[in-house]
Amino acid sequence: MLIGISADFDPVHLGHVDLINKARELADKNGDEVVIYLNKGYSANHGPFFTSFEARRAMAIAAGADKVVAIEGLHHRLTLAYSVPIRIAMMIEDGVVEYVDAANVSTDKIKQYSKRFVKEGIFVGIPRNLPNRNVIRWFAVNDFLYNKYHRKMEFHIIPELEVDGKISGRFIRKSIIENNMEIPEEIKELLPDSTTKILQREIKAGNIPKDRNWKKIYSTLNTSSRPNLMKLAYLNGSAINEIIKGRVYRDEESIWATFRRAGYGPVLTRLAISAVEENVTRFEVIKLMREYEDKGVIPPEQSVDKVIERAYYVANQTQKGILAHDANNKFRKEKIAIKNIPLEFSGGLSLTKFETKKMENGLEAQLYISGDGKIACQIKKDKFKIKTNLVLPAEEVTYLRYIIDSQLIPTTATVVKTQKGFRIKVTIHNS
Questions:
Q1: Which label site among 63, 193, 209, 297 has the fewest CB atoms less than 10 Å from its CB?
Q2: Residues 6+ positions from 53 with CB-CB distance below 8 Å
């Protein structure tokens, strides 16, 4: 049997030691093992790590864990609403029977909060005002996956350790950086000796801090066209237009400012930057989502099809004068299902005679949101480039814009020659 903890441990501090000690206490009763499911590549908050995986693994083992399992390839591709079910499923399949976490609210409260999300069967948009909302998400997903595995992990929630306030890995990292990469004495008091020694070794070797590939990020944001940016996951129309407006990028803060102007919060900004850094496409994300949907790990209400259904439903309702927010809430709460969603439709073009002569059947048309917020397309023929707005009925415009702004669902478009002239066939991809 395994006792599990899922974490970043960047770095391992005394609060993490408390988690491991609790897991050790449970494991030693029956000769079980303490296993840390340690995020690798990107943190659960979608950012780069301060400390390498190898160093964090060594810290966890030194603090009392028996082994470490790497969780890799998720956090630059998926939000927590999708990565948490995948991680919990992995733990259950590995034989983890008990799970240890920390929170500043009681287990009974966490159970109470989580019931709502289990009932709705959706783990997106857990309100920010809920305490320890990520623990609530884990609790809810664990209950949801009982339907698949007919077993679930038993949760053990211990109080969060506080030393003049909550111990934060972010605060520890910031303090070290601001102290010219020397560990301040007051920070050493928050760390086990083993972590301090490993950190000092890594700092001396020049392995800390890890950072993003900013050169690649700047290049992508400074040079990519609107259509090419739209192929990437987690960039909606507003974000892409703000990226274009904000050029040229030479520092991290200017990128963060751009995403703030587009209405992105810190977590989504980190995810979007990671997607840019790793060139994560929308096709790549929905392929991964589909893989875990087919395994029964992703809740049906979070499926690719549901994202598309919601876009279609909200577009339909807004044409009737209903507010998008109200339509979205109704779709979610009432679990509305819509069959035969159109995944293909055609739109008209506004072309000059010269442009019409350049057109031919089968040319690729790249969709994008123009600077004035309209859906447009770009068509290339040899060295000639045509840019024109797409002419669609109002409901289809709204539907397509919601699909684009889903940040997940890919679209493609092709020039089609008809008896009445050239049109653009738009395809919304669900796989």
A1: 193
A2: 38, 40, 41, 70
